[in-house]
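Minutes, project check-in
Item: structure for the 427-residue chain
Input as provided by the requester:
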Amino acid sequence: MIPMPALLEIAGPTTEPGFGVWLVATIVKMIIVFTLYMLGAALFTLAERKISAWMQDRHGPNRVGKGWLQPIADGVKNFVKEETYPDAANLPLFILAPMLSFIPALVTWAVIPFAAPWGSRWGIIEMVLAPMPVGFLFILALSSVGIYGIVIAGWASNNKYALLGSIRSSAQMVSYEIAMGMSTIPVLLLAGNVSMSKIVNQQAFETWNVLNLTVAFFIFLIAAFAETNRLPFDLPEAESELITGYHTEYSAMKFSLFFIAEYCNMLTASALMATLFFGGWDIPFTLWDNVAPHTGLKTLLTLGAFTTKTLFFVFFFMWIRWTLPRFRYDQLMSLGWKFLLPLALGYIVAVSGTVVTLDALGFARGSVPFHTGLILLNLAAVVILFNIVDRGRLISPAFSRLNTRDLDKLRAVSAPHRAPRVPESGD
């Protein structure tokens, strides 16, 4: 395996574009990326309906333009629909809440690299809107702001169901955001940087993090479902319990902004999983896309690889929604605080200890022995976690605290009070 410094030398010197070229390129990228981002969020509503219909053996939307124009029809309906405001609502905050929920979901995408850089005749154009050196910290900070929109929506509506939904959401976000942040620390330990582009390059020249850090990916995946309020973690909405939760009093486009924010968050979480654990835009089994010359063909192919990985996780979000039942609230809190958080802390200690040991033994970062040691640790952690510690008892939503003896006692007590069975005519 060629070490990272040698590969960076192969890549050759990079030329920075002038300010005018940088400004024009940034504006063009903003227009294209955010337009596709919003169109994707709209089309995901159609994809969710089609995927659920496919799983339930039915057709789904097929009337308006054979189903393809259904998102446009929904958008037109929401634009022309009458806006309603509760009498006792705090109107300024009631109006502000959907925007506070939507804007962070949209802006978070700005620091995620979506393709290999393009070596234009004016200089190297980075395929990321804002190549910040602290991009990962920016994502963690900004994604936390979205909860304010949900909490304000529940409080400003002056509705008990909306308030309960917002309180649930805030507790859920606090519980799982800690585990999500902890799960990414092993990624930063291996990359040695908090820049998203550096994290992608480290995986491209070495090994995808999902092989070295499977447990961290597992924690991040569960926390991503909880952060996006998707099943089985949709307790803040819980239609059967809280009507529709924090957006019960909303209508028209304000109501739609919450759903658009949910799908934008789902897309951003999918892109983060692809970037942090699956190499981002890296094409597997080749280094051709990571070294100079940085041609337009490489940019297009790596964009296709990144899109494929991201869309797979979007499909996975939808697949889980129509497969698993909703957690009880005590199960949701127990999973976050009693399982994921201790697991994330223990995994950080294990990975840190292994890295320090391998460094002390003289194995270079990125070498085969170094990654072999991490993979062996990872396999041991997966076996202990899923086959010895858990075995379906901790993670399963159907798990009950009652043991067999207590359950038999309850059945014996309730048996005399059961209504006698009425014989049917065929008996």
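Outcome recorded: Confidence is low (pLDDT under 50) at residues 1-13.
No further action items on this chain.
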